[in-house]
Amino acid sequence: MRKINVCISFDDNYAQYAGVTIASILYNAKASDELYFYLLDGGVSDENKNKLLSLKSIKDCEMNFVHIDEELFADYKKIKTHKYISLPTYFRLKSAELMPNVDKLIYLDCDTVVNTSLEELFNIDLEYNIIAGVNDLSHKAVKKNPSYINAGMILMDLNKIREQNIEEKFLEYTKNNIEKIKAGDQDIINSVLKGKIKLLNHKWNVQTSNFTNRSSYAKFPWIIHYVGQQKPWKYGNWNYHTEYYNKYLQLTPWALDKNEEKSYLKKSKIKGILGYIKYRPLFLFRPRFYQAFKETYLTKEPYIYPDTFFVWEPCSKSHSEVVPGFAKYLLDLGYSVSVLVTPDRLKEGLFSRFQNRRLFLNKMSQKEIKHYIHENMLSDAKGIMVTTVGKINDALDYSDAKKYFKLEAGQKAVFVEHEVCHSVDNGTFWDKLITLRKIDYKGANSVVVNPHYFGDIKITTKNEKITNFITVGAIKEGKKNSDLIIQSVKKLHESGITNFKVTVVGKGSLKHIPSEIQKYFDIKGRLDFSDMYKELEKADFFLTAYEKDKPGHIRYITSGTSGNFQLVYGFGKPCIIVKEFGPINGFNEKNSILYNEDEDFADAMKKGILLSQEDYSNMQNDLLAYAQSLYNESLNNLRSLINE
């Protein structure tokens, strides 16, 4: 946790707009962000001060109102520039004097909104420079001075400003060049500090006045600066990205009435479009319009913010159930997470229980994802987790995976392997691979990270009347584990035990099930994730029916694992499992029901049926405690792997 200093200057007329800026910062801050606001007060009323202070309800922070003596800026009042530039814009020129105990800060105009945490920006090393910013929208100004920045967002080293008497130089320049200054304080700052300005990523200050007139066509700008006279708070404005301003406005005491919001914004947007057409009737003949259209609407780009970690599942049909769990770990490590999965999985409700303002779900096909990575690599992201490494490399050699991403300094790529036997047997296994549990195969070691988080899940107690067993997978005739479940149900029925059911999430039919026991089976078929989550919440026990002598099942205790276990941990459902499969997967007599041989399967189900509510709760709590310890271990393992 580090203190982040933010400075905004305004008078009472601009208090509302400053409030929207502050609200956007607080809304997108990380839990660890310790925000200190220094509000240069050009005459803000007590009423508006109280409204600004109420924004602490979004996230706790410090707000300091710094009283301004306007006489300090008498010389700056003489500057003749744009009408919309008011006196408070010059307050930043005396930041070091006005805030003597502050070493470094981010200065923001109050016609900006922030869409990400400011931690990355604040922590940028200025090196020998005094300030940092983003090139101005004016091509003419930048052509004349390549380091000419827009002053709407400035990262400032106040210590260097004091040490080098920069504020005196600002005033001296102003007095000597009063007639030359066209862009107010911005011209002063760029002229005095030329050669001492660090240029930053363009996304830190995306200047916009209309659809084509933007400093960057980035789909997901980190800071938006509404330049010019078309401010987003004006009814009928045609400034692009106005929807962001309206979003954050609704978090403030100045929010629009909910009943009028949609109608007002719709009418304002229509008026804005008509106003733009009147302002620029020949826009369709401008090449820049088509460039803006292409990059805005035709170019596919995932959500990327400065602290983003991608989670990419390259497999179109399987393994996507692990993605929410891996995303949760990365969120807990302080990253924003941009998810790349086949869009159908999102439609099926993969993240239906999981919402986080720093979690972003992209609707891109695997072809589009691969094209983006090929063209842009990881772009501005911190790193990427590939949740099925076998889809981007040969099963026997991980060198292709390592070469797939050309990492820049500070970027990290981590890979998940679901089956290690091939590479271990070939002698090419890599001990930095992530596996979902500890491997027990020829001495191979990996990094254990188990993804068993699915979102806002209800942990339910045991059903009182009908014990509900659930199994995920097809019930097929002639399939040994299917036959085991069917025969065990028949055995229970014949012994007079009838207060139970078996919910089957997977393909199957009642046709091959004896008629007298069909009533115990509720075959749901293949469900989407949303419906599967509901069925799991309603269940009491998870049936596994693994076969000790089947190679495809033996891998669940040696070189691979089963997706069923993630569901058991995540939903807190004690499982019925053969004893040999228990210990390595964290199951014991306290948190599950273990059996020795296939003929004991019915007795294990019977034990579950007869288990009291109290004993079930104890078993479930033990299972949840194990799941939490596994989560903590996995989180630490992933943190260490990324930080290596």
- The third-level CATH topology of the largest domain is Spore Coat Polysaccharide Biosynthesis Protein SpsA, Chain A
Report the radius of gyration as a whole number of Å: 30 Å
Count of separate structural domains: 3
* Total beta strands: 23
Task: Label the overall shape.
Answer: elongated
What are the low-pLDDT stretches, counting only 5+ consecutive residues below 50?
none
Beta-strand content bin: 15-25%
Mean pLDDT: 92
CATH homologous superfamily title of the largest domain: Spore Coat Polysaccharide Biosynthesis Protein SpsA, Chain A
Q: Note the main sheet.
A: 7 strands, mixed
Helix fraction by DSSP (H/I, runs of at least 4): 25-40%
The side-by-side strand order for the widest beta sheet comes to 3-2-1-4-7-6-8
Using the 3D structure, state the CATH architecture of the largest domain.
Alpha-Beta Complex
Descriptive account of the structure:
With 644 residues, the chain is α/β, with parallel strands linked by helices. The protein folds into 3 domains: 3-297, Spore Coat Polysaccharide Biosynthesis Protein SpsA, Chain A, CATH 3.90.550.10; 308-416, Rossmann fold; 467-627, Glycogen Phosphorylase B (Rossmann fold), CATH 3.40.50.2000. The chain contains 22 helices and 23 strands. The strands form 5 sheets. The chain has a 7-stranded mixed β-sheet, sandwiched between helices. It has a 6-stranded parallel β-sheet with strand order 20-19-18-21-22-23, sandwiched between helices. A 5-stranded parallel β-sheet has the order 13-12-11-14-15. Helix 17 links the parallel strand 18 and strand 19. Helix 7 crosses helix 8 (185-192). The longest helix is centred in the C-terminal third of the chain and has 31 residues, at 613-643. The two termini are 21 Å apart.
